[in-house]
Write a structure and sequence with these properties.
Length: 305
Amino acid sequence: MPHQVGYCCINLTLGKEKITTGRTLRQASFKQDTKLERTSLLALQNATDLVKILKWNMDNNVKVFRIGSNIFPWNSEYEVTQLPDYSTIAEYLHLAGQIIKQSGQRVSFHPDHFVKLASSKPDVVRRSLHDLNHHNWIFDMMNLPATYHYPLNIHVGMNYSNDITEKFCEQFNNLNHSTKCRLVVENDDKANAYSVKKLYKNIYSKIGTPITFDYFHHTFNDDGLTSKEAAYLAAETWHEYKPLFHYSESKNLNENVSGNPRAHSDYALLTLDDYGLNIDVDLETKAKELAWTLYERNRHDKMVS
């Protein structure tokens, strides 16, 4: 079965109409918003626009989509139920879930890099636990099943060591039950961090958390595995659930520039090799749905040629 491909977080076409889920406040402005009125309004606008983006996906047959993580500005600093517009926001999230299920979209979250469950700083750990449970709560408000079909993807976020591994697994057990049922971990693009092999041996084998295979990251940290071997090893960890992988290409190569070799290109010019696996894929390209459109067109052209 051909792999399904989607895009991440931002729709550039709708963005021209100011439709976005990333409205936020500067820290100083947030601190002045003592009654959370401005914060609540922005969250409501973000939730409203999430529905519009999901409808665009449905109309354009997008089956895989990563939801942006900033629907609720500064969410670690308050309880969402405190927001004046909470009930209306909840209605829009419920509607978003209905659209997702009706259209068969597979959605996910990928919280920011500051989520570090294994940090030695208690406040960082507290915020990380809160942030993951918060993302899980949004899934719950959408009435989506707490399974790996709707994954919550993170990196371990720190350099590899036995101590970091132990701390990560310990803090995993402090997450809400449904958060644990959605959490998946992704391989890193630096040799001193977590490869697919290290994630399998040190995380999956201990807490059963599936592995998201990132093709591009693997090129920088293969740990002795070919891309095919790593993809199969990661896919094995999803068991009855369809794996969700990440794919991107080099900005330096595709756009003939020099810079950070890990930078993602605007478009994916190749068709990824799914190695015969039945997978879903997030395209992590800067051109978002425009890159998705070009990828699907190129793939179709190759299939009929």
